[in-house]
Amino acid sequence: MASNRTAASARAADLDRATGELDPPFAVADLEAFRRNARDLARRAHGTPIRIATKSVRCRELLELALAEPGYAGLMAYSLSEALWLHRAGTSNDILVAYPTTDRRALRELAADPAAAAAITIMVDSADHLDYVDAATGSRRPDLRICLELDASWRPLPGAHVGTRRSPVHGVRAARRLAEHVERRNGFRLVGMMAYEGQIAGLGDAPPGRPLAGRVLRWMRRRSAAELAERRGEAVAAVRGVAPLEFVNGGGTGSLEITGTERAVTELAAGSGLIGPTLFDAYSTFRPQPAVLYALPVVRKSAGRFATLFSGGYIASGPTGPSRAPSVHLPPGLRLTAAEGAGEVQTPVAGAAARGLRLGDRVWLRHAKAGELAERFTHYHLVEGSTLLRSAPTYRGEGMSFG
Q1: pLDDT in tens, 248-259
Q2: Is the dihedral angle over the CA atoms 116, 274, 279, 345 positive or is it negative?
Q3: pTM of the predicted model, to two decimals?
Q4: CA 349 to chain centre
């Protein structure tokens, strides 16, 4: 424990030296941690290529750094307008849009650009999506690349649903029927399948202080993974009987070593594991390093064991609760207060380390989710060790916001 605290204090000192000329609030990306995370994800994938989930990064320079690492190929965007922008910027010529789109303007841009139409694959899970695309773009266009999404949720009992609410296509026959419908339609080409198992990839199986819950979660993950592997394999075989798929995408940061063993899966998806947010501290088999942090300044000293920071109320999306709050990372020995938490204009912190804080000192925090911090800052300051290398704009810093 003492050695951990010493290492944390040394890291805080390095970060303070690297960013000494900057006035907080600001955010940094630790490139050493980022690269270590990238290589660990590739190790866990055991040779299956990883498509980077852009919503977990939201910074083009970091996306390009990850794509340059062995084991990575292509991007998974979270909106069509984002995919078009990334393609125009030259970030990638292989972009899968992970969610269906109703953005008519973006669809028209895609249909009007043959190069983009050849590089970008859009998601569907119903014939209605195809009708919508036709209505938005008309019939005079290049064939649009289509990915069919299979629902990966676990349904152990009638009426039970464990996992995210995504595609209505759950069974093998439904997948084949939709594939046949896509193939019959002019203007579309079925090239891929995707299934995201959120109940396995996005749910930590070792929640701190809850050993019984951890055992239940690990049991659920095993049972769900076994069911999905069989169903996904059958669905992929059925769809391949209709169209020669280029790829089958599955998994996420929390399930690479599980999903990567499925013969039907040709590529994996991951993004959060590059960044290392706090929600990924609760896994039993891996622990990404915190690669993106943000600094808040001390602006008020009250009682000896309390200090107040400026701003900082960056709450993550998802079910409201303590797991979505940021956490104090450095210096060690600080925590948020139960009465105020992380606030819009001020964030009190408590603990023995607060006694040594002075006005203007910075306290380093971690966000609960990987990509949402980029919506708060225009730049990530890139550091290695105690050296500030340069600043890289986030999506926000490039004037882009995709909802």
Answers
A1: 999 999 899 999
A2: negative
A3: 0.94
A4: 28
